[in-house]
Specification:
The chain is mainly alpha-helical. It has helices at about 1-15, 25-40, 50-75, 100-120, 125-140, 145-150. α4 runs antiparallel to α5.
């Protein structure tokens, strides 16, 4: 009985001990966590917005990818997409890139594209000439999409 009483007394003392306050280091780290949780998750980030030219080129890529498939299958090519002519007026990411070289390459690209629709019997040749114009320009200006552009060639 004496041992049981001693055990209860020991448990009572342990349970009643005063808990230590958190150290100042722990408080600071908790405050930091709370601050980071309450701050906006996208604070300091900006959404990338394409220039008119970048957006146009993305659309021309999609259109040419579809055209490529039609040419390979022997389907009709349809009509020249008039929005391609915006290549002459679309705002570029870097306005300095809209120089004489770009304008001559844009002209070659549009001429090749128009020939696809005016001479559908030789669509493959004209299509590849249009891709050549893209490649030549992108080799000088913005090399990033070259791998993707070259995949458009019809062999």
């Amino acid at each position: 009985m004496k041992h049981v009483f001693s055990l209860y007394l020991l448990l009572f003392l342990v349970a009643c001990q005063k808990k230590e306050a958190p150290s100042s280091k722990e408080v600071k780290s908790n405050e930091t966590c709370k601050q980071s949780k309450t701050s906006a998750p996208d604070e300091g980030f900006e959404m990338y917005q394409m220039s008119e030219m970048a957006s146009l080129m993305e659309q021309m890529y999609v259109d040419n990818k579809r055209l490529r498939e039609r040419i390979i299958k022997g389907d009709t090519v349809g009509s020249f997409p008039a929005h391609f002519l915006k290549i002459y007026s679309a705002t570029m990411t870097d306005p300095e890139d809209n120089d004489a070289f770009f304008k001559s390459q844009a002209k070659a690209f549009i001429a090749a594209q128009q020939k696809i629709y005016s001479d559908p019997k030789n669509a493959k040749v004209h299509f590849n000439a249009g891709i050549d114009a893209c490649v030549q320009c992108h080799q000088q200006k913005c090399g990033g999409p070259l791998v993707r552009i070259k995949k458009l060639y019809i062999k």
